[in-house]
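Thread title: Can someone regenerate the structure for this chain?

I was given the following input by a collaborator and told the matching structure tokens would be attached. They weren't. Posting the sequence so someone can regenerate them.
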Amino acid sequence: MADAKGLMRSSDNHEQSQTHWLKQDLQKRLERLQESQPIGSKGFTKAGIRKMVARLHGKFKAVIL
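Best answer:
Regenerated them for you:
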């Protein structure tokens, strides 16, 4: 029984680590995007933002599952 609890904790820690890493990665990407494409600049449209969010959501979902 102790082994199962240890495995569950290990799995939870791994998932939390992946989530933390993904959040940091997304934050860095957002910072780079904001530097290269400031809000209001030409080419930074609502549709483009929606596509980017959908793509990132897909990547996030793939990591979680």
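Residues 25 and 44 are 21 Å apart (CA to CA).
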